[in-house]
Fold these 4 entries.
Entry 1:
Amino acid sequence: MRPKDTIYWVCQAFGWGVFSAIGLWFAARQSGWRPSLAAGFLLYFLYSIALSDLLRRRMERKQWLSLPRRAAAFRIAAAAVTIGAVQTLLIVSVDLVFDGRTSVFTRLDPVFATAFGTTLATATWILYYVRFTARQRQRERETLLQLALREAELQALEAQIHPHFLFNCLNSIRGLVAENPARAQDMITRLANLLRYNLQRDRYHTAPLASEIEIVADYLALESVRFEDRLQVTLDIGDDVKQVPVPTMLLQTLVENALKHGIAPLPEGGLLAIRARVERNRVIVEVENPGRIVERMAVSTQVGLHNSRHRLRILYGDEALLELRNGDGHRVVARMSIPRTI
């Protein structure tokens, strides 16, 4: 049982217990002590807890406290009167069963007094419940708002990435239409696969690394039209990392950055290496290309890397890392490190 549930049931037992004890004391003073009186108030204690909890569940399920104030007040008042009437009916019935003709409820005055008291007790319970849960509801609303803002921000960041990716692909296909129509058709099919993948994956924001590798393979096939023999690719993907979720299209962004700033400026092209592994319960993805990081290059790549880092921060908080550094042998390495979630 969660701590807040424990507190709730303790308060339920304490509140209705105190009210029942006070009622028993007053009733014993007026009509004298008898076992049936204690049994009646014990039953009152139990079904009052049950009825008020049913009311709480309905309030939460129907979200009464999220309604406009007047509508919420009307429903709460109606519920208090209804529960008061049910409690009164049970009290009168139990007392008549135990005491018969000697019951105080053979007259109407005690019935009306009991109905007023039980309705007032239920209304008091509702007021205290609303008051003591107000802070929790405020926290829940703030959490939902933060999640909605994060979702909107994440979608906006993804939208910034997709048009850039699409324009590059279309430019690659355009040069093939006249020269090699059959290959152009194949490239259009690959582009359609990429677009379909994006439409399916946007709502999830993460996908298995194996799926991302397949999409990157389609992207590299499109870019090979432009680079021809200047582009060489190697893959080193561990079997234990293929089904691990990673941010959608982020690997493609790193590959696109490597092509643009590493392969494209070199007349002879170069080798693009993609590696992925699990290391101490973290997923390490690296994209390596020829070149060196200089100040001018670092500035020109800031937008894509900034968006990628922002996406990682939204998805993983401070547990994610994306860095661009100079590697060995005149190479540049983009390294993403995220927690392994499965």
Note: The chain has a mean pLDDT of 80.
Entry 2:
Amino acid sequence: MAIVPGMRLGPYETVSPLGAGGMGEVYRARDHRLGRDVAIKVLPASFSRDAERMRRFEQEARAAAALNHPNILAVFDIGTHDDSPYLVTELLEGETLRERMKARALSPRKAVDYAQQIARGLIAAHDKGILHRDLKPENIFITSDGQVKILDFGLAKLMRPDGEASSDSPTLASGTAAGVVLGTVGYMSPEQVRGLAVDARSDLFSLGTILYEMVSGRRAFGGDTPADTMSAILKEEPPPLSDIQQNIPPGLARIVEHSLEKNPADRFQSARDVAFALDAFSGSSSSKVAAIPSGGRFWQKRAELIAAAAAVAAIVLFFLGRSTAPSLTPPTYHELTFQRGTIYNARFAPDGETVVYAAAWNGKPTELFSVRIGSTESRPLGLADTDLLAVSSTGDLAVRTAPRFLTSFQTSGTVGRTSLSGGVPRPVENDVQAGDWAPDGKSGVIVRDVGGEQRMEFNGKVLYSTPGWISNPRFSPDGSKIAFVNHQSRAGDPGRISVVNVSDGKVTDLAKDFVSTYGLAWRPAGDEVWFTATRTGSMRLLYGVSLRGKERLIGSIPGILTLQDISKTGRVLLTQDMWRLGILALAPGKDKEQDLSYQDYSAIRGFSADGKTLLFDESGEAGGGPGVMFLRPTDGSPPLRLGDGTSQALSRDGKSVLAVTFQGTNDILVIPTGTGEPRRLASLSFQPHWGDWLPSGQELLLSGGEAGHANRIYRVNVKSGAARPVTAEGVTPVPYAQIISPDGKSVLALGPDGSPGVYSTENGERKAIPGMEPGEQPIGWTADAASIYAYRPTVPARVFRVELATGKRQLWKELTPADPVGVYFIRPPHIAADGKSYAYNYGRILSDLYVADGLK
């Protein structure tokens, strides 16, 4: 059912869309009878076609409507319109707890406040015999005045399974009998995982997982697959909170641990027990919540009172101990740079007092500089259009000349060797993306693309290869190991911290599950790897991890941190960045570009042929880990939120979006841009990294690789999921481009040697592209498919129209923002069929360089 503003649903008039999810679409509406605005959740029409399901919907809605409590979303009415049932609730202003936690962990005080309110809402529901069964941060809403509202009471029971669940997706069923798994994987109780009958204590376990995440900034249980997550819930204990955040009081940690007991009998026995413990912890007990029940419950309650009192005593002693102990000297940060622009890489020189760095200041090309600690003046080294990779123990520099942008995070160029005193670099290797000197200063490790994979090479030996990408390789002080950031997918910068032995190539993962990971160095003793990363949003923090995988938080300052280096004396070199990925577009009929950026990292994923609609994701601090997908008219109208995830492409008719639920998986979704439910593609035998629609809308082109094999391009049926390889291994799609021809018969891709070509989507036959110059890449087609657009990744970016038959070239457009300062890349434009309208991303980083003393 298509819902448009002004439509009547019973007595309610729709005003505007508010969002969409697995339970349906939500709209703001006006109840003219009572003169108030309400929220209307329109559920899928499939509900009404199932009489039993509809009966249960009405039953659960009535039960939820009976829950009159300030911490539970008020249900006003139910109805049906065009066979689609709808639910009318109070209209809330604010954000979900998931959105609130995207920046970082909450303070213990705020987390306890929210948990107290959730517990009170559960008391009211459990007293009426109603369980939630799907408590998670997405179902907790924080109003603008700080009041907690629990959403979707009872509705979880109404959803049916729809393909394999992810660690974040509902695993729901049509009934509540034992043996039926119900809930959301990462927040389910052990008894839910086993499919056993559940009671109120299951909701308390879920509350414990939420409280753990609020105070730590990471999930209590997780894994690479839903099965791994379920196994962790059944068998593993979450990392102690004190190991993750140093400011969590022991009393609060004990409450969380007690909530997460595997055996329900060992857990808190009621929401009243949880509320009482939280109130005792915060010093705000109320007689209403703390009332002691009669009968046999007295002794159990007495034990809880003693435990709560002990927790309060421990907290008092903890803070008294801190107040009487000698104060620790806090770390100090000294700013080294004061110009406006982007810093790329920085390293300590061997003396530990000089810093060498590469930066693009005030809109000029990248250049090398040096600065003495304690000085405010940087000295240019006379190496323009040059980036820094590493500084050796003997003072030699490994530099990258003529660096060119590949993706938002990857740059390639020719590696050369020069000295700190200057001089023209002597070329060593071409097309290198990362590298580091060995401790002896004579050899080094490099990272580059070969045959569709990225390889780490040392002395001619491949130590590690991946279809993803590798950043920040750093030798251990003794030279026996190389630590690096292991990015499993070419999309974005999620990654894990890995170490490879130089002698035998054995790889060990030390820390994982970060949504943004960049910047790494060894502690001087060689016993710990320090790195900058975050598990939510984009604000990277400074972590350390031992070679046994013991992880700890070291520190943070506002902004996006990147660890650059650690000196032999323990000084830490950091950059503090402000990142923005913006959108500039020329809409149909316009003669001037307009900025269509929405939040902090607006990544274009699709562009309609008529130039009127833009598909983009927010994947930075605002978008959080999974990202958020939006459609936006290029006339500047507000965007429409499609849901969480990473989108890939907009179908030719504009009715569907191809997406993945979260990065690094093969969980592919087809999301309608209008009404309807997202549909999960059948499981694939390979992990896709890219996808787009063929013109029919019935088939996709996907790129990925099966285990042990390089990437290739597949043709996939949307309905059945049947996939067949089209190209040979090592063929990868051109990134950030509209690469499928208008007739769907050809695709622009890179061969195993990295050279671009036109490949048949039927049999993978390759044709060369005449007229392309070195360093350029094909990015799209003209409407008649007689020419392609060739893009030169510079700032400003230049785009040419190249005839496929003759190789004749013509400059189509030169693209750059009006303010070029800090703009370090311009992505290939998405061009409409008329060749006039377009949209493109530009990346801007404004950096400051700091040296820190006292970080331990």
Note: Residues 156-183, 284-327, 662-666 have pLDDT under 50 and may be disordered.
Entry 3:
Amino acid sequence: MRAAYLTRRKLLGTLATLLAALFFSIAAASLVGPVHASLGRALGPGGAGTPDYVIIVRTRLPRVLLGAAVGASLSAAGAALQALLQNPLAEPHLLGVSSGAAVAGLVALVAGADPVSPLVPAAAFAGALGTMALVYLGARTQGRATPHAILLVGVVCNAVAAAAIMLVNALASYAQARGVLFWIMGALSTQSYALVALVALYACVGLAWLVAHAQSLNLFAAGDEGALQLGIDVERARRSVFVAASLLVAAAVSVSGIIGFVGLIVPHLLRLLLGPDQRLLLPASFLGGAVFLVWADAAARTALGPAELPVGVVTALLGGPFFVLLLRRQLSRTFT
């Protein structure tokens, strides 16, 4: 297997390069925006009282860091699910977890919760957990949940959740419409450093959970029977990875709404560049997804400045054509 040829030098070199790219992206994106702000004035003597400090340190930087955490979570979850379901077209939002989170968040908004209160993300997280349990239990037959069944039940749950979102949208008042758009289109907003740190910590724990199952994910390429013969408890490993990936998606969606295609684009491109070994692909997707969403959000903030696009629109514009090209590639392989 190709997994056996991963060297420590390749692993550390690749991750160091991506980590450097992430630090550069965070620093550069914090300086990008429709309003010019000087880093020198912000960090210079007396800079804490300047508008530049407020713009860069209190407004842009926490948003950029939140985008990095959300992108990392979605991308790592996508890489794991593609290996778990043995389908390179698998994408976290296809399983309905993000739509379930959006429904719960919207219900909380329509019920009168303050959009900036922690109640809305908490409701979204609970909705994601409920959907995750529904997908897994619905796909389980005779004590097993096959990749095919998980995908089918996830697609059905996604469709039902989409209809529920439209229903809640129809019941929402005009004043609640902005919050509804936030969940439907996906958007990042400035949050407290405490919340950003919590999401980042959650993302790192989720990554560690997935990396611990990286070798099992590599063996899934041999199919369920092959993995069993190689000593893997297929059902237990599949359940553990599915839960970890779903929790990562739930945490991301609870603070950003539905941002699609990050978990499809980044893992697939990195798989083409680095190979399918999950020991490298999972952490590389984590860092690569962070870089991707940081720059996607920078484009969303500046493309139509001073107006702002939801970052979910930017990722959809990039991801839609990419998905079609990937699908055509898969079909051409199938019929040749």
Note: The chain has a mean pLDDT of 84.
Entry 4:
Amino acid sequence: MDVSVAMGTYQGAAYLAEQLASIAAQTRLPGELVVSDDGSADDTAAIVRRFAADAPFPVRLEISSQNVGVRENFARAVGLCRGRCIVLADQDDVWMPDRIRILAQALAGDPHAGFAFSDAELVDSARRPLGRRLWESIRFGRHEQRRVARARPFDVLLRHNVVTGATMAFRAEYRDLVLPIPAGWVHDGWFALLISAVARCVAIPEPLVEYRQHSGQQIGARRRTLREDYLRVKARTAADFQAIAEAYAAARSRLLGSGRALGDGRTIARLDGKIEHFRAKARMRTRRAWRLPLVLRELAACHYLRYSTGWRSLAQDLFL
């Protein structure tokens, strides 16, 4: 498979050179690197241009005239790729030398797999190991790993996103399905959910990325304290839960309008269940007298198990 690397950058000068060097050091080089920069004011563009001058593959740099945000920036990078396999890249990580080879082989080895993703080593800003891996941090445990291996990734992703964009590659044939990315979604969660509805995926337990954790990143895998988790959940409003419901409604519309055969006849019904579950959560915040009946209804329908984080979500709805 010919491989394109799609990278989104913004104010990335601090760590970008290391990431680019790790891509150039791959045992299997990509056919191209596409960098979409979101109007950085630092040396990001200059670093990319210096790298492109001697890179062992073509490098394309596109710079936004105004800041459009992570979602639109990655969408543009993906849209410009020419390869049949698109490997996503963050600006601040470091790749293991075999990352492209392993991801490309995983997709080539299963013609029914639409995307592949891996675990990652968590490191600090100086690349010192933090003593844990990404899957552990996002609670992607063995039970859910087995469900993904048994061709049930969509069910897992309906509960929570376990696919981090920095670890993901997907077939370019699904680009028309996932682009454009609607508001309310981060690119990785959107890509993984939609592709998992029409294809299998390959989860690779081997860490293929040093996933750098630092204060300047927008999305990371830092563990929250119990107090931080409590305050975050307590601050959620009815509008927040309604927005989540609308985001999944957008996924439903995209799948129905794609003309693609869904991998499971229950896909739309499960999406409907997710949407209704979060609409119920919104009603719990606006009709407090109806909270207990609504919670009991969602519990009886097994929606906390299928669409939320189980007993944690149940306790939050009851007491927060």
Note: The first helix runs from residue 16 to 24.
